[in-house]
Amino acid sequence: MGEIRNAERTRRKILDAAKEEFFEKGYNGARIESIAKRAKVNKQLIYHYFKGKEELINETIADFAASVPTGNLILPANPVNVAEFRYKVNIEHLMEFLKFTAWEAVESIPENSNGTESRRKVLQSYVEDMRAKQEMGLVPKELDPAFLTLMISSLTIYPVLYSNVTEMITGLTPESPEFQEKWASFLQMISERIFK
Q1: DSSP letters spanning 56-79
Q2: Any idea what DSSP says for residue 90?
Q3: CA distance 79 to 144
Q4: CA distances from 37 to 60, 129, 148 (A)
Q5: How far apart are the first and last CA of the chain?
Q6: Tens of pLDDT along the chain (196 residues)?
Q7: Is the distance from CB of 163 to CB of 169 less than 8 angstroms?
Q8: Cβ(91)–Cβ(53) under 8 Å?
Q9: Alpha-carbon torsion angle 74, 80, 84, 90, nearest 10
Q10: What is the DSSP string of 171-196?
Q11: Do the beta carbons of residue 111 and residue 58 sit within 8 Å?
């Protein structure tokens, strides 16, 4: 029983270290040697648990996704509240992961890695949710649900991910409570106009 617990503990240490490394440096910048050093394990031990870097990134993303409380994926019934809700989820639970996605946007990465399919399912569920709200008459018929989802994603990710641009434009850092309160209010006002 002790050996199983030690194996689970070692695997957990590797996944935690891999998350830090991948999220800080992206897929291409991450090194197995650095992950081993962070986890305080021998590099060969990583290959005992994972076939290689590609499997490790997939397991890391899957592990991270499993750690996000499922209530954070259930969108509010009123479309007016969706953007503010997604913004708060991003700043409270997804900041590290969003930084990783910025790396991902500029790197060439192995196909079908980084939990692409599970992430696609979540994003498509947002589109389907918007489509269902449209069928209920809560979303204007002339607005494409996919483009609405992309717009909301942009508005709820860009300001926090590109903090230097946010500060240059607004004079506030995205981490500041003042910015977060003002941006949440702005998202609410914009949403009220779109979904009136």
Answers
A1: HHHHHHHHHHHHS-GGGGS--SSG
A2: I
A3: 14
A4: 17, 43, 43
A5: 59
A6: 555 568 888 889 999 999 999 888 888 889 999 999 999 999 999 999 998 888 898 888 888 877 877 766 789 999 999 999 999 999 988 888 888 888 777 776 666 555 677 778 888 999 999 999 999 999 999 999 999 999 999 999 999 999 999 999 999 999 999 999 999 999 999 999 999 7
A7: no
A8: no
A9: 40
A10: SS-TTSHHHHHHHHHHHHHHHHHHT-
A11: no
- A 10 A CB-CB count for 134 gives 18
Measured N-to-C along each axis, helices 2-29 and 53-67 cross at an angle, to the nearest 10 degrees, of 110
Contact (Cβ atoms closer than 8 angstroms) between residue 78 and residue 138: yes
At 83, list the tokens: 């953007």
163 and 173 Cβ atoms separated by less than 8 Å: yes
Helix crossing, 2-29 with 95-106: angle to 10°? 50
Collapsed DSSP state (helix, strand, coil) of residue 136: coil
Contacts of 167 (CB under 8 A, 6+ apart): 173, 174
